[in-house]
Amino acid sequence: GDSVTQMEGPVTLSEEAFLTINCTYTATGYPSLFWYVQYPGEGLQLLLKATKADDKGSNKGFEATYRKETTSFHLEKGSVQVSDSAVYFCALNTPLVFGKGTRLSVIA
Amino acid sequence: GAVVSQHPSRVICKSGTSVKIECRSLDFQATTMFWYRQFPKKSLMLMATSNEGSKATYEQGVEKDKFLINHASLTLSTLTVTSAHPEDSSFYICSAKTGLASYEQYFGPGTRLTVT
Lengths: 108, 116
What we know:
The complex is a heterodimer of chains A (108) and B (116).
Chain A: E1 3-6, E2 11-14, E3 19-21, E4 23-26, E5 33-38, E6 45-50, E7 56-59, E8 62-65, E9 75-77, E10 86-92, E11 97-98, E12 102-107
Chain B: E1 4-7, E2 10-13, E3 19-25, E4 32-38, E5 44-51, E6 57-58, E7 67-73, E8 76-81, E9 90-97, E10 105-107, E11 111-115
Parallel strand pairs in B: 2-11
Antiparallel strand pairs in B: 1-3, 3-8, 4-5, 4-9, 5-6, 7-8, 9-10, 9-11
């Protein structure tokens, strides 16, 4: 069945460092791909999405490109902030299939 | 954005008892709600899909008689864990869907269930 594999955490970075969280997927057909973020004490929120190959999703300085040839959807941000500390989930549909989540801690 | 609440946020119950978890969409109508279970360091596992006014659709391996789901209105779905056992201890998360596209889901903050 469909599955998502994302890098194990936790990831600890200093403020303004570059972030990459790897995500690869296995799916039949052409799924839509998503990154969700869960801030402490809150529910999951959609961060960004891409619905077809070569699409780039972006939001709040985060980006991810749908790479069909490598079945990947890596999350990147050029300069992280303390407020980016959260758990990030890669997912595909439908219904939503999630990776295990990667906890990011950003230190000032 | 749309808000989904869950109640309670944490619950502790004794083995053999039942516990009910509520999921509410506060400012929108949700024709479909989903229940997930999350184990430590594991991904969210979809348990069931709940459509208002009809029986829930359970994923393979999820006991429908143990995890009773009711979606009585467009803003409320409940999950009842019956005859709870320690292995049912987990983090339960609901989400509500507003439109046809699956990414239009809004998630609740989750409920931590501990069965002693």
